[in-house]
Amino acid sequence: MLSRRSVRIKVMQLFYALRTDESLTQRMIQKRYWDSIDMSYEVLIYNIYIVLNIIKIAQEDFTKRNKKHLPTDADKIFTAKIYENNLIDRLIKSKELQEFFEKKEFNSSSDIDHLKTIYSDFSKSAFYIDYLAKESSDQDHVDILLELYRYCRKSELYNDIIGDKYLNWLDDKSLVIGAMKKVIKALPSSDIKFYEEFYPDDETIKEYGEELLNQTYNNDKQLLEIIKPILSNWDPDRLAILDMALLKMAACEMLNFSSIPAKVTINEYVEVAKAYSTEKSKEFVNGVLDNLMKKLQSEDKLNKKGRGLKED
């Protein structure tokens, strides 16, 4: 589920924490790294939980409509099928998923009134009204869930619900959304634990992410010495903390990750700088890393391997 860029961001944030809290040890930041990985997966599961509880409100809606003395035509055709169908049934009957919900105490952290507001607003949409007016296939159920989730991720209230519980929501949002769409499209799955396939893969989080964290940490002084000659008139001690962290990580990546082209490394760290550091960081990081790449090339220190990885 996680990309290398999202892992770079997590590692960068750890080095920022390390610079601002001298009591942190390597073991501590390693633990924080793995906690952040678990948290990204947990955000996905929480999204599943919230959507399930939004559509569950359809049952309450059905009961209220049935109790009306003068029901409208819309009331007469209403059903709770958005929740009561075999796709959702697979999720409800997943013992492992329900245990995850309970273990993380999701119920205590969600305000049912907020979920009712989201459901009420969505229930007025033409897409939902059309869905209720016809017989529905599995594909129709998938389509309405995708439409609901599209509505949710654009809802300020929904984003507040997720963001208030998870500080990493903004960092991981695009990847969680992509995974959530795949979860919905996979319904009804014959594998009752199918959602577990979205836990980040070892190649990204261990072989790349953990290695980047450890090598940058262990070679901090050496990396600084490699970068210093490129900084010209810049005093390393006066650089923005995030910029220095990004430069060290990028240098480490150029030197030690032979399967990643140096130009890809530059582009990725420039984008991270653009999103997370100062206004001028994008140009600064780009200039320093471009010069660093040329220096390492001239010294024959860019040992890139694999098809198409020879640096110009």
Would you kindly provide a written description of the structure presented here, covering whatever features stand out?
- The protein is built from 15 helices and no strands.
- The protein is mostly helical and 312 residues long.
- Helix content is 69%, strand content 0%.
- It is elongated.
- The protein has helices at residues 4-20, 26-66, 73-77, 86-92, 95-103, 112-123, 126-132, 138-154, 156-165, 169-185, 202-218, 220-227, 241-256, 262-276, 281-298.
- The model is unreliable at 307-312 (pLDDT under 50).
Tell how many strands the DSSP assignment holds. Answer: 0
| Straight-line N-to-C gap | 32 Å
Question: What's the pLDDT, averaged over the residues?
Answer: 92
Described by strand count, sense and barrel closure, the largest sheet is: none
What's the oligomerization state?
single chain
Radius of gyration: 24 Å
Give the overall silhouette. Answer: elongated
**Helicity, in percent?**
55-70%
**Secondary-structure element series:** HHHHHHHHHHHHHHH
Tell me the fraction of residues in β-strands, as a range.
Answer: under 5%
Low-confidence stretches: 307-312
Number of helices, counting only DSSP H or I runs of 4 residues or more: 15
Instruction: Please identify the structural class as seen in this structure.
Output: mainly alpha
